[in-house]
Amino acid sequence: MEGILHKWTNYISGWQPRWFVLDGGTLSYYDSQEDAWKGCKGSIKISVCEILVHSTDITRVDLTIPGEQYFYLRAINAAERQKWLVALGTAKACLTDNRTRREKELQENTEAIKTKMSELRLYCDLLLKQVNKIKDSEERGDSAEAGEDTGNMVKSTCTTFLKTLEECMHIANHTFSSDMVSQSPPGSPPVAAIKPQKIKPLCHLNLGEKLRESEEANENQSQDSGREGAEEPEKPDIPSHRDQAPSTALEEDDGPPAPYTAGPVTQLEGEGSNPEQEQKHNMDQIKEDGEDEVSRNQREMVSAPDQILPPQDPLLEEEGVDTFFSTMSHRFSDIRLEDDRGIPTQDFLDSCYAIVPVLDKLGSTVFAPVKMDFVGNIKKINQKWLSDPNSFPTLQSIVLHELQTATAQVRNSATEALLWLRRGLRFLKEFLSEVHSGEQDIHGALNNAYGRTLRQYHGWVVRGVFALALRASPSYESFTAALVSQEGDQLKPGFTSGMRRDLSVYLPAMEDQLGILDDLYDEYSLESDEVV
């Protein structure tokens, strides 16, 4: 299906008509039907997005992927919206049916892993009993034959234990193959997208560059001085900003629209402006306005040939190096708490989704079970919030509601999910704190963070699985290379300082909100010593 829908762009341009095409489970949009040959300006996958009908506007439909994309659309009339809803719903249903087999296989393999882990726990208990039996035999001074029989039993149990562990790892490797772990678990929204890197400010140009440009400007001026009315030199073609990154146009940057008001909205000329052209214009302005000052600097350099230009302020270089934590779509440091220290539910969950890629950067295969558990807890809380958003504006309101209904400590409750999500976030926070303090041994940082947070809640088998994952952790160079917004930024001198700068803002806010949740669970005695 294809046709015109009005898309919310931003608070300056408002609603703008766009040409939308639904094909192959993807909804794409263009400036107009005539400009479709230029390529789409953006798209969204129907299989993973939520289709929401507006409660008051009969022409509006919202397509959202929490933490990543938000399409706010309006049809020409209610009948046209109904056609789009049918088409979108049909596309989503067909794609869901195609995923049923894969989800079923994943579920079966997950159950098989749980069965194998139960067997491992059984063999572990059996080994402990057999070892204690050997100790008792030595204390009683039993015969050598009795000790030999017990030793054979221990050997047999160990052999069976290792075989079962091998089968468990085989199922895990088959289930969480590389083509599956690169995506979020079935049914969960994809993780947050990274925003484009900001254009480097003009003040970052060093004095040497300004001098060279001034010399070129002087030469051009001297050549053109004898000609009146000389035409401005032709500027080279500059690639369009939209052609480079269609999904980062101005209309994608603002928040949701305000309540609808009648009347058309005029498109402003400023939409889609090219920052590279603006930068070139500023450079030309420097050549004109700073000509006298630069010439004076040149004369000073001639009079003092041995004088060396002062080095550029390293803070200027560092300011331009963005990292993963400065380009996240949602951050804990951006959350504004309520007056009563309430943590907004949606903002908190979006920030949790945004930090999930850190687990992929540590190892997408070995940390796949950890990621699935982490995202699963976010989804449980999100489902509780979606059941009545007005009643659950904060995380505290969800917990207090389940306390009043005596469901807080029920299996798979939102309170239990928040308990484990908080523990997982605490683990990531401790790990990032180690990196922030200068620790370059990723394996050691992960091990220290695990020992201070999750280890006390894990049984013998889960500790062993986690130990295998820690052994496969990447090197410091590989991990930091995965935290750049543009390839090669980790080699810049300001990257390390930029990382510490971003973490020094991100981690305190994360610690503050986790501390609020700690106090809440302590106040109502919701902590659990259950070992998994």
TrEMBL record:
Residues 225-244, 277-299 have a biased composition (Basic and acidic residues). InterPro entries: GLTP_sf, Glycolipid_transfer_prot_dom, PH-like_dom_sf, PH_domain. The lineage of its organism: Eukaryota, Metazoa, Chordata, Craniata, Vertebrata. This is Pleckstrin homology domain-containing family A member 8. Keywords: Transport. Residues 1-93 form the PH domain. The keyword Zinc does not apply. One of its GO terms (molecular function) is ceramide 1-phosphate binding. Residues 178-197, 212-314 are annotated as: Disordered. GO terms for cellular component: cytosol; Golgi apparatus; membrane. Pfam families: GLTP, PH. CDD domains: PH_FAPP1_FAPP2. It comes from Gadus morhua. It is found in: Golgi apparatus, trans-Golgi network membrane. The keyword Transport applies.
